[in-house]
Design goal:
The chain is α/β, with parallel strands linked by helices and 482 residues long. It contains 17 helices and 16 strands. The strands form 4 sheets. It has a 7-stranded mixed sheet. A 5-stranded parallel sheet has the order 9-2-1-10-16, with helices on one face. Strands 3-4 form a two-stranded antiparallel ribbon. The radius of gyration is 21 Å and the shape is globular.
C-alpha cells in the first residue's frame, strides 16, 4: 500500500509525484516505457553520441512555470538562453528576429516596429499576471485584472479578422503567426493567438531556454528529487486498470482523457464517461531529426543565432498551410518548427565533433503515416539553400509513430486534446476542479487538464494540490532544493 500511485512519468506525472512525496507521503510512479520522461526524453536517435530530444526541445515555461520556479529548476540544471529566442525567415524580405530584448526586436522591424511594440509591451510589463492566468487555467479569479484585460483584448484581436489592422509589412504578422503556430490548428483562432502571444511575451522576458544535455535533464532532476524524498518509479509497467493499483489512498493519472474511461473499468458515471468520449483530440505532428556536417546555411545569417526557427513564409501562407491540415490534407507548404540546440550546447555531440544536430517537426492530419523528410527538407531549402548538401543522416517519426511512442499523443496530438476555447473551459469537463474525477481519490493530471500542453508541470502540480487538500488535509509543501 502507498499513499499515492501515479500513472505516467512525464513532466506532469512527476510534478504530481514530487509534490506528494515532498508532503511526506509514500509515492509510487508507474511508467509503461523503459525510462521516465514522456514528452521530455533525450536519446541517441540516429547515431551513437548524438543526443536528440524525442519530443520537446525548447522550454519557454522552464523559467516561468510556477511549479518550476518553486522547484528552482534553474538551480538544478544548466540552461542556455539564446539572445535570439526565435526567428521567422521570409522569402522576399529579411527575417523577423525575436530578440529577448523587446526594443532591439522592434528596432529591427523597421516600419512595423512600433506596432509590434504596442502589441507586446503591455504583455511583457504584465508577464507575471499573464503567466499566472495561463498556468492555472481560466476557472479562477485573476491576480492581475489589468494584465488579463490587455492580454484578452490582444488575443481577441490576433485571433480574429482584426489581426490585419495593426501591421503594414510582412515581418511582424509572420512572427505572430509563427508564435501561434506552436498550437496545431486553423489561423486565426482565439486559443492559438492567446498561446502565441504568451510565448511571445516570454521570448522577450525570461527567454526560451534550452536545457544542457537535452530535455531529459529536466526529467532527471525531478526523478532525483522524488527518489530523495522516498518516492519510487516502476518502469516497463503499463497500467491497464485502476484495480492494479491496489489500495493506494489516491491515484493521479498522467494519461490523455480518452484513456481514463478504459482504466476505470465501467465505474465512471455515464455523463462523465460521455464527456470523455466527446473530448476532441487535435491534428498531429510529424518529426524529422537531422545530423548535419555543418551549420544550417541560412540565407539570412541572423537566423543562425536563434534557438527556435519558424518556417512557413508569410502570415497568409501559414494560414493556408494550417487550413489544409485541418481539412485532412498534407500541406503543400508545411509550417515547420526547428531548433538548432547544438549551436549552443556542444554536449549533445560526440567529443571533438564539428557536426550539428537539427530538431524539426511539422503539422499533419491526425494519424498520418507519411514520412515528411522530403517536405521538411524542401522547406528548409527555401530559406537555407544548400541545406540538403549538409545532411549527414536523418530520422523521421510519423504522427502514428508518436502515438505508439506515447499513447497520450492520440493520432500524434502532443496536446492531449484539441486546443480550442471550449476545450480550455472544459478540459476535459466543465468544472471548477477539473482534475478531480467522479471516482473517490482519483485525479487526472495530464495535459488533458488545465492549463494544457507544454513542459511546465502545472497539470500535475495542481492535481496534487487538490489531492493533498481533499484526501490528506495537507498543505502544498515547499519544493525548493533541500
Amino acid at each position: 500500500m502507498v499513499d499515492a500511485a501515479v500513472v505516467g512519468a512525464g513532466p506532469n506525472g512527476l510534478a504530481a509525484a514530487v509534490t506528494m512525496a515532498r508532503a511526506g507521503l509514500s509515492v509510487r510512479v508507474y511508467e509503461a516505457a523503459g525510462t521516465p520522461g514522456g514528452g521530455a526524453r533525450t536519446s541517441e536517435l540516429i547515431q551513437p553520441g548524438y543526443l536528440h530530444d524525442i519530443c520537446s526541445a525548447v522550454h519557454p515555461m522552464a523559467l516561468a512555470s510556477p511549479f518550476f520556479r518553486e522547484f528552482k529548476l534553474d538551480e538544478r540544471i544548466g540552461m542556455f538562453v539564446p539572445e535570439v529566442s526565435f526567428a521567422h525567415p521570409l522569402p522576399d524580405s529579411a527575417a523577423g528576429i525575436g530578440y529577448r530584448d523587446l526594443e532591439r526586436t522592434t528596432t529591427a522591424l523597421g516600419r512595423d516596429g512600433a506596432a509590434y511594440r504596442d502589441l507586446m509591451k503591455p504583455l511583457v510589463e504584465h508577464i507575471s499576471g499573464v503567466v499566472d492566468l495561463t498556468t492555472h487555467g481560466l476557472m479562477r479569479v485573476p491576480r492581475d485584472p489589468v494584465g488579463l484585460l490587455k492580454y484578452g483584448l490582444r488575443s481577441l484581436e490576433q485571433g480574429s479578422v482584426l489581426r490585419t489592422r495593426r501591421f503594414e509589412e510582412q515581418q511582424g504578422p509572420a512572427m505572430i503567426a509563427g508564435l501561434a503556430g506552436h498550437v496545431v490548428g486553423r489561423q486565426p483562432a482565439l486559443a492559438s493567438a492567446a498561446a502565441g502571444l504568451m510565448l511571445g511575451a516570454l521570448s522577450h522576458t525570461v527567454g526560451w531556454p534550452i536545457p544542457t544535455g537535452g530535455s531529459q535533464a529536466i526529467i532527471d532532476a525531478m526523478v532525483a528529487d522524488l527518489e530523495a524524498h522516498g518516492g519510487q518509479i516502476v518502469t516497463g509497467h503499463r497500467v491497464t486498470s485502476l484495480a492494479e493499483l491496489g489500495s493506494a489512498r489516491t491515484v493521479l493519472l498522467d494519461v490523455a482523457a480518452p484513456q481514463l474511461e478504459g482504466l476505470a473499468d465501467g465505474r465512471l458515471p455515464s455523463g462523465y464517461a460521455a464527456a470523455l468520449r466527446n473530448f476532441k483530440t487535435g491534428d498531429g505532428v510529424s518529426k524529422v531529426d537531422f545530423i548535419l556536417s555543418e551549420d544550417v546555411p541560412w540565407a539570412d545569417p541572423d537566423v543562425g543565432q536563434a534557438g527556435t526557427v519558424h518556417l512557413g513564409g508569410t502570415r497568409r501562407q501559414v494560414a493556408i498551410s494550417e487550413a489544409q491540415v485541418s481539412g485532412g490534407k498534407h500541406p503543400d507548404n508545411p509550417f515547420v518548427l526547428a531548433s538548432q540546440p547544438s549551436s549552443f550546447d556542444r554536449s549533445r555531440l560526440p567529443p571533438g565533433s564539428h557536426r550539428q544536430i537539427l530538431w524539426t517537426y511539422t503539422h499533419v492530419p491526425a494519424g498520418s503515416t507519411r514520412d515528411m523528410t522530403e517536405a521538411v527538407t524542401a522547406q528548409l531549402e527555401r530559406y537555407a539553400p544548400g541545406f540538403a548538401d549538409v545532411v549527414v543522416d536523418s530520422k523521421a517519426t510519423t504522427a502514428a509513430d508518436l502515438e505508439r511512442y506515447n499513447p497520450n499523443y492520440v493520432g500524434g496530438d502532443f496536446s492531449a486534446g484539441k486546443m480550442t476555447v471550449p476545450q480550455l473551459l472544459a478540459r476535459p469537463v466543465p468544472s471548477m476542479n477539473p482534475w478531480r474525477t467522479p471516482l473517490d481519490g482519483v485525479y487526472l493530471c495530464s495535459a488533458s487538464t488545465p492549463p494544457g500542453p507544454a513542459v511546465h508541470g502545472m497539470c500535475g502540480y495542481l492535481a496534487a494540490e487538490r489531492a493533498l487538500k481533499d484526501v490528506f488535509r495537507l498543505p502544498v509543501p515547499d519544493l525548493g532544493p533541500q
